[in-house]
Design brief:
The chain has 341 residues and is mostly beta strands. Helix content is 0%, strand content 51%. Strands 7, 8, 10, 11, 12 and 13 form a 6-stranded antiparallel β-sheet that branches. Strands 16, 17, 19, 20 and 21 form a 5-stranded antiparallel β-sheet that branches.
Length: 341
């Protein structure tokens, strides 16, 4: 249902000597479906410009957007949970000869993250000397809103989650814009580099499957623009914001060694790896606590020398990651157990 949030957790398992051994559950993560896009009406009232709409499936809150002179330069002017909004700021502005563009999008919140509907179609309003309002559907203007996109890298692990992964595709998700005829997708291997057309789509997804071009050691950057066909020619939106994507790095396989000041973990740097998280856990809890975040290929756990380890088992885990646009892209975990006498 669009009106519900849904929550998931996962636990891993491994068969050892005929016995199934489980990890702890992952953290609980929530998700939700994008709510219905609101359809609004607009009118001039005594103290401003009033927008109103009906509450539809999935909607919890609303953002009201306004652009002064262009829909592409629009910004949020209100974040509300009611089904109408009066823009009083406009009465304090010089409206002579200015076109104002309004839109509304709904959202719902799960785990503190807003899940948005599409922006409703922008409506243009001009105010003449008699303060009369002209509302025009944006699709009649030839003005196309720029798309919003997301990009995710996918890999194949073969038969082992510890083998070097093979890049399979980067999937581009496009938030749909009503009335357009398609989207052009552009890519570069540098955020500030030259972008080349890689493909087109009319759907909300495009798969870049040029596997021979991909590398675990690179980040890839995408942007898109929407177009409409007008008398056989393409009219374009502005480009979307640039988004980055990367593939999960190779899982680090480490060795354990007792040293004078603790337990030393060490590994080799492999494809796609930039930094490493080191985790530790006691007994059947597996590795549940992160104890280090390093860019080296070794780490010595000195804290364990100050713990009561008699007749206890400790698990260590290491996972690698790389960063693109401030987001960490993780490898799988690799675990080892050490038992103290």
């Amino acid at each position: 249902s669009l009106d519900n949030n849904y929550y998931y957790k996962v636990k891993a398992y491994k068969e050892i000597d005929g016995q199934i051994i489980y990890s702890d559950f992952s953290d609980v993560k929530g998700t939700a479906f994008p709510p219905t896009t609101p359809a609004f009406s607009i009118e001039k009232v005594g103290n401003g410009v009033r927008l109103s709409w009906k509450k539809l499936a999935g909607q919890e809150g609303y953002e009201v957007w306004r652009g002064d002179g262009s829909s592409s330069d629009s910004k949020v002017i209100a974040d509300i949970d009611t089904i109408d909004y009066t823009d009083k700021q406009i009465t304090m502005m010089d409206t002579s000869g200015v076109e104002f563009y309004y839109s509304v999008r709904a959202y719902r919140t799960v785990d503190g993250v807003k899940v948005y509907s599409n922006l409703s179609e922008f409506q243009k309003m001009t105010i003449n000397d008699e303060m009369e309002v002209e509302v025009v559907d944006e699709q009649k203007l030839g003005t196309i809103r720029k798309p919003t996109i997301y990009a995710y890298g996918f890999v194949d692990y073969g038969e082992s989650p510890y083998a070097p992964p093979t890049p399979s595709k980067i999937q581009i998700i496009v938030n749909q814009i009503p009335g357009v005829d398609g989207y052009e997708i552009y890519v570069s291997d540098s955020k500030e580099g030259t972008y080349n057309l890689v493909g087109e789509t009319i759907s909300d997804r495009y798969d870049d499957e040029r596997v021979s071009w991909f590398s675990l050691d690179n980040n890839y950057y995408y942007k898109a623009r929407a177009y409409k066909l007008v008398d056989g020619d393409r009219e374009y939106s502005e480009f979307s914001d640039i988004v980055g994507a990367a593939f999960p790095p190779t899982t680090p396989s480490f060795a354990l060694e007792k040293v004078g000041n603790g337990e030393k973990l060490y590994w080799k740097k492999l494809a796609g790896q930039e930094r490493y998280e080191v985790w530790r856990g006691e007994g059947s809890t597996r590795a549940t606590e992160i104890i280090a975040d390093v860019d080296s290929i070794e780490y010595t756990d000195k804290e364990i020398t100050m713990m009561d380890t008699t007749d206890k088992e400790f698990y260590y885990g290491v996972r690698a990651y790389r960063v693109v646009d401030g987001v960490k892209i993780y490898s799988n975990f690799y675990f080892e157990m050490i038992k103290f006498e």
